[in-house]
Specification:
The chain has helices at about 10-25, 30-45, 50-65, 70-85, 90-105, 110-125, 130-145, 150-165, 170-190, 190-205. α6 packs antiparallel against α7 (about 130-145) and α9 packs antiparallel against α10. It is globular and about 55 Å long. The chain folds into two domains: about 1-135, Serine Threonine Protein Phosphatase 5, Tetratricopeptide repeat, CATH 1.25.40.10; about 150-205, no CATH class. Helices cover about 80% and strands about 0% of the residues. The protein is mostly helical. The longest helix is centred in the N-terminal third of the chain and has 18 residues, at about 10-25. The chain contains ten helices and no strands.
């Protein structure tokens, strides 16, 4: 799930290409390649077409379970957690996320664990459980650091931490998190994330 901020036009082009690939793969015996492609489509459709995203993720999950593809099943469950979170089905979202976490822990996949912790943090945040969200974002950041995540990924982690600290009125820590992210984002030139960061930083100063 590293391409959350991809350009809309590029995403649409990729969807078209992958949908054609999907049609071709359906003519062959179902296997790991089909499950992986369904997960990729589920991710691409996550924000633009949640219904299509859910259909792809559920099919990927069922296929992965049938074929014993643990990594693929963990990704499907994580995606279904995000999809249900978007729909406000928080209990269902957490069930899928925990199932994903169990598989990643079995596989000792630190990157998968870190990504799923971030999904769980968003679910807690949406329910007003900011302390729990902060705890999970911290664990996610720690995991991503251990996996050698990119600076942009770490900046996003600090953006999320800053939002939690701001929500808890721990304003000095919120500003510290935002300043860390700002240094990275100014170098990378990611204007969309910078706009989000400046808006949140202004909110902290307002408080």
């Amino acid at each position: 799930m590293k391409r959350l901020w991809r350009a809309c036009g590029k995403a649409n082009e990729e969807m078209t290409v992958l949908e054609k690939e999907l049609e071709e793969l359906r003519l062959k015996p179902a296997g790991s390649e089909l499950a992986a492609l369904l997960n990729e489509l589920a991710y691409l459709y996550l924000h633009s077409n949640p219904d299509r995203s859910e259909v792809c993720a559920l099919e990927a999950q069922n296929l992965a379970e049938k074929l014993g593809l643990l990594t693929c099943m963990a990704k499907s469950c994580s995606l279904l957690g995000s999809i249900n979170h978007q729909s406000g089905n928080y209990a269902e979202a957490m069930l899928y996320s925990r199932k994903s976490m169990e598989i990643y822990e079995e596989l000792k996949d630190k990157n998968g664990i870190a990504s799923t912790l971030s999904v769980m943090a968003r679910i807690y945040w949406s329910q007003g459980m900011v302390d729990k969200a902060l705890e999970h974002y911290h664990e996610s950041l720690k995991g991503k650091q251990e996996c050698g995540a990119s600076k942009d990924e770490l900046a996003l982690c600090h953006l999320n931490l800053g939002a939690c600290y701001s929500g808890l009125l721990r304003l000095d820590l919120a500003l510290s998190s935002y300043m860390f992210a700002e240094k990275i984002l100014e170098k990378s030139g990611d204007r969309k994330k910078l706009a989000y960061l400046y808006n949140n930083t202004g909110s902290v100063y307002g408080k």
